[in-house]
Design goal:
Distance between the termini: 29 Å
Number of strands: 2
Strand order of the largest sheet: 1-2
Low-confidence stretches: none
Mean pLDDT: 76
Largest sheet: 2 strands, antiparallel
Strand content: 5-15%
Shape: globular
């Protein structure tokens, strides 16, 4: 479930920028498609993203984008929502300490996000 939250954070980031982080590109030599990083999405971080394979460093690149770009585009609440999901994997939370099930932890995270989204819609 934790990876689902992280993936949702990626999707929210793509929605916020109205661009996908990757694009299909047809290889001339084989005629097959490969996935390439979208330069319009990654902006000045494109070269770093191309050369990065460590999952935690990639997460940090997404967070840099969110903090630098999303905040200017749609401001605080949605940025908080995205950061909640992207940081979910590292949160040493009270919930884990209490040995709750993944479902109970997930419901808690979703509750926090819904509250933030309701603030946006009001």
């Amino acid at each position: 479930m934790m990876h689902d939250f992280y993936s949702l954070g990626i999707v929210f980031t793509e929605i916020a920028f109205w661009r996908t982080s990757v694009l299909p590109k047809k290889k001339e030599s084989t005629g097959r498609f490969e996935i390439v990083h979208n330069p319009e999405f990654w902006c000045g971080l494109l070269e770093k993203r191309k050369n990065e394979n460590d999952a935690d460093e990639i997460r940090k690149l997404y967070l840099r984008l969110v903090k630098g770009g999303v905040s200017r585009q749609i401001r605080g609440c949605f940025t908080q929502v995205i950061e909640t999901y992207l940081n979910y994997l590292d949160e040493p939370s009270e919930e884990s300490a209490a040995a709750l099930s993944d479902t109970e932890i997930g419901i808690g995270i979703i509750g926090r996000v819904v509250e933030a989204l309701e603030a946006v819609s009001l």
